[in-house]
């Protein structure tokens, strides 16, 4: 487990004409679940990608477990990211998809890898899918596999980028509950990105509300709802005015 610290993190595109992430500072405690919410284009994915090391910041720092990882390559960061589009390897089976990350991030032998995959698959209720390929799975099953692939690595930090956006409303509700249950059980530090206010209000210990690259407010869902610090935040979370 680990804290995540963003220290005046900034990302400019287009030679500085676009500031996607505008000096964001945020401290996520060990084992905390923080939901980052804001409208489309406000810089949520770019922030996550910088935490994962998939994008380098223009300035500022990312610390994981107190260690400055700003210049550390993505594959040497102990984070696992779950994407909206699942990002499964189409030609690999579910077992191979889940084992691949373990091969990259651990020096376990193949028997040990398989045992870990079996254990995680049982926890996720996907044992029966292990020999299937992604195109044989429903959207909900794919996202379950993508979650399993992240969990099996036992990372220090989970990063979720709108993982439920492609699922229908009913499945979305049940997967929300499941992600919360997993997080309670595993106690892994998690940063969960969504543009959906309702999802944000029901998930996470703490909300971080972004608009136009700027972190507007952080607080518990109740705090933010009852005491929004700006018209934007109040409007966004639907506070009574
Ligand atoms: P969100 O995830 O909140 O929808 P993003 O982080 O994807 O927002 O994008 C923030 C802003 O940065 C948007 O204006 C987007 O168009 C821009 N952007 C993101 N990635 C790139 C890139 N690789 N090159 C240029 N602009 C980008
Ligand atoms: Mg995004």
TrEMBL record:
Residues 4-237 form the ABC transporter domain. GO terms for biological process: carbohydrate transport. It is found in: Cell membrane. It catalyses: L-arabinose(out) + ATP + H2O = L-arabinose(in) + ADP + phosphate + H(+); D-xylose(out) + ATP + H2O = D-xylose(in) + ADP + phosphate + H(+). It comes from the Archaea. Keywords: ATP-binding, Nucleotide-binding, Transport. The keyword Transport applies. It is a peripheral membrane protein. Its main location: membrane. The complex is composed of two ATP-binding proteins (XacJ and XacK), two transmembrane proteins (XacH and XacI) and a solute-binding protein (XacG). Belongs to the ABC transporter superfamily. Carbohydrate uptake transporter-1 (CUT1) (TC 3.A.1.1) family. This is ABC-type D-xylose/L-arabinose transporter. It comes from Halococcus saccharolyticus DSM 5350.
